[in-house]
Design brief:
Helix content is 31%, strand content 32%. The chain is of the alpha/beta class. Strands 1, 4, 5, 6, 7, 8, 9, 10 and 11 form a 9-stranded mixed beta sheet that branches. The chain has a two-stranded antiparallel sheet with strand order 2-3. It binds uracil. The site of uracil has 10 residues, from helix 6.
Length: 212
C-alpha cells in the first residue's frame, strides 16, 4: 500500500483553519472543498490516460485524455459528502457512487447502511472520500467492497489520519500495490472515544451540524 502525506504550506495553513473550533460551518465546508482539490491533484497522479490527436490553432499534436471506463468517486456518507465538490471540480467526468458506513460507537466497527454503487466495477479506478482515517475500520470495509467488485485500484483521500488507523489499514491491505492513501496530516493518536487527537472534532457535525 502506498501512503502519501501532502506536506505543503498551503495545505497546512488551510488545515489549521479547519481544525480551529472557532471556524464556523460555512467556512469549514469551503476549506474542506479547497483541501480536497489540493489532495486530489496528488491522488489522481496515476489516473489512466490514452493518446488523442488534436489540432491546436498552430499545429497538429498528440495529447492525452482520460481513458474509459471513467473513474469512480465514492464519498463515504455522511462526512465524505463534504469532499465531493472539491473532487468533482478536479475530475468532472468521474462517475459518483455512494457508500453509507457509520461506526458503532461502542465497538467502533463499521456498519454499512447505504450502498449506491454498480455491482460490477471491473477495471474501474476508484477514489474513496472520507475525511477522517481514525480506526481504519470504515476504510478497510470500503476498500474491500470496491476490490471485491473488480476495481482495478483504490485510492483513499482523507484529510487527517491517526497512526492507529493507518497501521490497521496497512496490516489489512499488506503490500498490494493497487491501494493507496493520500492525506494532509498524520496526527498524534486516537483518544478513548475514537476521536483523532488533536484532530478537528466530528467532521460530519462540523460540516452539517449535530444529528441525534
Ligand atoms: N470521525 C470524526 O469525525 N472525527 C474523528 O476525530 C474521528 C472519526
Amino acid at each position: 500500500m502506498r501512503i502519501s502525506i501532502i506536506d505543503h504550506p498551503l495545505v497546512t495553513h488551510k488545515l489549521t483553519l479547519l481544525r480551529d473550533e472557532k471556524t464556523p460551518s460555512p467556512l469549514f465546508r469551503n476549506l474542506v472543498e479547497e483541501l480536497v482539490t489540493l489532495l486530489a491533484y496528488e491522488a489522481t497522479r496515476d489516473v489512466k490516460v490514452e493518446p488523442v490527436d488534436i489540432q491546436t490553432p498552430v499545429a497538429p499534436m498528440t495529447g492525452v485524455r482520460m481513458s474509459k471506463p471513467r473513474p469512480m468517486v465514492v464519498p463515504i456518507l455522511r462526512a465524505g459528502l463534504g469532499m465531493l465538490e472539491g473532487m468533482s471540480k478536479l475530475v468532472p467526468n468521474a462517475e459518483i457512487g455512494f457508500l453509507g458506513l457509520k461506526r458503532d460507537e461502542t465497538t467502533l466497527e463499521a456498519i454499512t447502511y447505504a450502498n449506491r454503487l454498480p455491482d460490477d466495477l471491473t477495471g474501474r479506478q476508484c477514489f474513496i472520500l472520507d475525511p477522517m482515517l481514525a480506526t481504519g475500520h470504515t476504510l478497510i470495509a470500503s476498500i474491500d467492497y470496491l476490490l471485491e467488485r473488480g476495481a482495478s485500484d483504490v485510492t483513499c483521500i482523507c484529510l487527517l489520519a491517526a497512526p492507529e488507523g493507518v497501521e490497521n489499514v496497512k496490516e489489512h491491505v499488506g503490500d498490494r500495490a493497487d491501494v493507496s492513501i493520500v492525506f494532509a496530516a498524520l496526527d498524534e493518536k486516537l483518544n478513548e472515544n475514537g476521536y483523532i487527537v488533536p484532530g478537528l472534532g466530528d467532521a460530519g457535525d462540523r460540516l452539517y451540524g449535530l444529528v441525534d
